[in-house]
């Protein structure tokens, strides 16, 4: 592929040529079978841990960490005020080979493995910067195009998305329908070979900046269940009648451009239909485990970040003539937090393995999403508490991590819906 890091990365994945990055200054643990799990590592965010990864992944991770440190962290406060990240960042991420990693190269993607994509999700969580919607773009939106799109759609969108020049979003939720997707009203009606799209969507992540959005719409009201009458469409920015509303004012994810959309008689060519007519719900069900796995991965990684921030804080903060970390109640709290994070990490890593082998089912992905996002919120609560009043100040990273954690139990399907899915499988399996 086109960029230096990408070429280097592919070389590493392919096992050919010399590593493209300096080997100095890494905190590697041992390789191969002897890699430590996070529970035994010095820090939960150390490079070189976890059996699912290899030395090649570590080298890639180091470059991703550097990218977030240099290209994201210094600008994030500015983007929080703007309510969006810069387009320039997207193109930089494209140049670094951070977008579309797990999309096959025959489809225009980078052709890397799932674990390398996961490294980008994790490193973004470690940077505590939730603005860039990279995981949504690369690992939620792009797979729909790669898995169900026509050759023409793949050629048109995927290379540009990999380059960060075309930003992707997906619009399912409506003002009156979130958990119950079958209750959506946005619809597309045939007009010759074209479609006419009408309706509205809300809470669209990457919505303000996006150039292309997958819109979920009803195409057959007569279907015996609404799930059989839903289709997906690729709607492009600038199409007549496609109106972006305001950037929504959220309590967290301040630099993430979450938006509402209105569709007023948008004329879509036949080529805008993604996959087959009325198969949309089926496609959503196929892709949703990966979306929930991403949320659970980010949840555990954000917890690891918060734990390390808090460990550093209590070790230097003084109270009653000693450090806060010297208090036994604080030590026990840290022990509880570390245990629950490491247990969640073990489960989510096993889900990553399952997903790589294409065996992650809906109910198991729901367990990961529900469990890890609940852990993240408990960790956020306790870590902020351990910072005292300073934890409530925006200038402290834990404050941002606390508000950003809150959405994780809601989007991607609420945790109540996750329990529904888990329970359904329990009952059916008997
Ligand atoms: C910041 C943000 C980003 C988002 N990004 C996107 C995006 O990019 N694309 C997109 O399409 N959507 C997105 N969403 C929408 C998100 O997925 C929905 O908000 C979520 O699925 C819940 O839907 P709702 O808000 O309509 O809540 P509702 O469905 O109205 O639920 C309200 C409450 O009722 C509970 N409830 C509902 N049904 C049941 C049930 N059967 N059993 C038990 N409890 C139930 C819910 O758990 C919840 O507690 C985003 C939302 C936010 C806030």
UniProtKB/TrEMBL annotation:
Its main location: mitochondrion. Signal peptide: none annotated. PROSITE patterns: ACYL_COA_DH_1, ACYL_COA_DH_2. It holds the Pfam family Acyl-CoA_dh_M. Residues 56-165 form the Acyl-CoA dehydrogenase/oxidase N-terminal domain. The keyword Disulfide bond does not apply. This is Long-chain specific acyl-CoA dehydrogenase, mitochondrial. Long-chain specific acyl-CoA dehydrogenase is one of the acyl-CoA dehydrogenases that catalyze the first step of mitochondrial fatty acid beta-oxidation, an aerobic process breaking down fatty acids into acetyl-CoA and allowing the production of energy from fats. It catalyses: dodecanoyl-CoA + oxidized [electron-transfer flavoprotein] + H(+) = (2E)-dodecenoyl-CoA + reduced [electron-transfer flavoprotein]; (5Z)-tetradecenoyl-CoA + oxidized [electron-transfer flavoprotein] + H(+) = (2E,5Z)-tetradecadienoyl-CoA + reduced [electron-transfer flavoprotein]; eicosanoyl-CoA + oxidized [electron-transfer flavoprotein] + H(+) = (2E)-eicosenoyl-CoA + reduced [electron-transfer flavoprotein]; tetracosanoyl-CoA + oxidized [electron-transfer flavoprotein] + H(+) = (2E)-tetracosenoyl-CoA + reduced [electron-transfer flavoprotein]. It comes from Rangifer tarandus platyrhynchus.
């Amino acid at each position: 592929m086109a960029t230096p890091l990408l070429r280097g990365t592919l070389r590493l994945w392919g096992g050919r040529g010399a590593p493209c990055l300096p080997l100095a200054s890494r905190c590697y643990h041992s390789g191969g079978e002897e890699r430590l799990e996070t529970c035994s590592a010095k820090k939960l965010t150390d490079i070189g841990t976890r059996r699912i990864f290899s030395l090649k992944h570590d080298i890639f991770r180091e470059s991703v960490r550097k990218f977030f440190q240099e290209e994201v962290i210094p600008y994030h406060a500015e983007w929080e005020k703007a309510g969006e990240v810069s387009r320039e960042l997207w193109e930089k991420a494209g140049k670094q080979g951070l977008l579309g990693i797990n999309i096959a190269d025959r489809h225009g993607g980078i052709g890397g493995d799932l674990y390398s994509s996961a490294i980008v999700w994790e490193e973004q969580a470690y940077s505590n910067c939730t603005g860039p919607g990279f995981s949504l773009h690369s690992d939620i939106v792009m797979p729909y195009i790669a898995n169900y799109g026509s050759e023409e759609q793949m050629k048109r969108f995927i290379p540009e998305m990999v380059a960060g020049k075309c930003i992707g979003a997906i619009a399912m939720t409506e003002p009156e329908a979130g958990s119950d997707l079958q209750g959506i009203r946005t619809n597309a009606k045939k007009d010759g070979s074209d479609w006419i799209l009408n309706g509205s969507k809300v809470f669209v992540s990457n919505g303000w900046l996006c150039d292309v959005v997958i819109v979920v719409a009803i195409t057959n009201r007569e279907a015996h269940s609404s799930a059989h009458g839903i289709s997906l469409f690729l709607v492009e920015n600038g199409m007549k009648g496609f109106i972006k509303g305001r950037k929504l004012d959220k309590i967290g994810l301040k630099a993430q451009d979450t938006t509402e959309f209105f569709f007023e008689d948008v004329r879509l060519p036949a080529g805008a239909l993604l996959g087959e007519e009325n198969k949309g719900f089926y496609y959503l069900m196929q892709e949703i485990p990966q979306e929930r796995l991403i949320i659970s991965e980010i949840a555990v990684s954000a917890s690891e970040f918060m734990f390390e921030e808090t460990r550093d804080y209590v070790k230097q903060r003084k109270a009653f003539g000693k450090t806060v970390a010297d208090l036994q109640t604080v030590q026990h709290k840290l022990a509880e937090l570390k245990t629950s994070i490491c247990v969640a990490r073990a489960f989510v890593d096993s889900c990553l393995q399952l997903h790589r082998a294409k065996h992650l089912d809906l109910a198991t992905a729901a367990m990961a999403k529900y469990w890890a996002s609940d852990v993240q919120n408990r960790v956020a609560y306790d870590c902020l508490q351990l910072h005292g009043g300073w934890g409530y100040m925006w200038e402290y990273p834990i404050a941002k991590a606390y508000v950003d954690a809150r959405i994780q139990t809601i989007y991607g399907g609420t945790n109540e819906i996750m329990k529904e899915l888990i329970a359904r499988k329990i009952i059916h399996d008997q």
